[in-house]
TrEMBL record:
Lineage of the organism: Bacteria, Bacillati, Actinomycetota, Actinomycetes, Kitasatosporales
Record InterPro entries: Pept_S1A_streptogrisin, Peptidase_S1_PA, Peptidase_S1_PA_chymotrypsin, Trypsin_dom
Tagged with keyword Protease: yes
Record has Cytoplasm as a keyword: no
Gene source species: Streptomyces synnematoformans
Signal peptide: 1-37
Pfam families reported in the protein's UniProt record: Trypsin
Protein name (record): Peptidase S1 domain-containing protein
Record-stated family: Belongs to the peptidase S1 family.
Amino acid sequence: MSRRRRRTAPPLRTLATGTVLALLGALLTLLAPPAAAAPPAAPAPAVPAAAAGEVRGGDALYGGGFACTLGFNAVAGGVSYGIIPGHCATAGGSWAADVDGARVSVGVTAGYTFPGSDYGLVRYTNTSVSYPGEVRGSGGVPVDITGATDPQPGMTLCHYGRVTGYQCGRLQQVGVTVNYPGGVVYGLFRSDICSEPGDTGGPAFSGGRAVGIIVGSSGNCTTGGTTFYQPIRPILAAYGLTLP
C-alpha cells in the first residue's frame, strides 16, 4: 500500500513522534497467516450463529484467509466492537472466531486507519456470542480490564498474542515512528517484550488498564526482540468507544 486509507473513522489527533525506527519487513507481523501453516485450505466452515460463548482480547479473529489477535472489546451506542490493527482490517471484510469448538461468524469491518496510525474496528453482528471486557492473561486465564491509560516509559507491561501467549516486561519508549512496507506509522510505543508473527493485534495492558495493541515487532522470541504498539486511548477517542 502506498497511500493512506480511511473508512468511517473521524480524523485522528496528531500524536507526538520520536526516533524513526526501520523494521525488517519479514518481522513486521503484517497479517501473519495462522501459525505453522499457510492459510488453511479447508478451515472449519463459518456459520451464522452458535451456542452461547465468548470472544475476548487475545483470541484469534479470522478474515480474508488470515488471522489476527483481537486486542480489546469495546462498546459505543449499545453496539459491541472489537479493536484490531488497521493493517489487519484491510484484509478482511467479515470475521470469524472459534467459539465452543466451532468457527463462527462474529462481525464485519467497521473502519480502519493505516498508515499514519494502525487501528481498525470490527462491528460484532453475532448476538449469540458474548464480548466481555476481559483479555487473556497467564495460562489464558481472563484478566478484567477496567479502564485505559497512556503508555509511560518504565511502566510494567504485559501482552497476550495468539502465538506466544502471555508475556510481561517493561515499556521502553513512547512517540515512536515506524517505517512499514505499507507506509509510515506515528505515535507508537515500544517494549522489551518479544513477539512473533501472528501475535499482531494482541492486547497490551498494565494491571487492569488497557494500554495498547501489538502492531509490529523486531527480532523474535528465540534470540530476543522488541514489540511495537498502537496506544489504545487514541483509538477509543477516534470512534467514541468505551471499554465494557
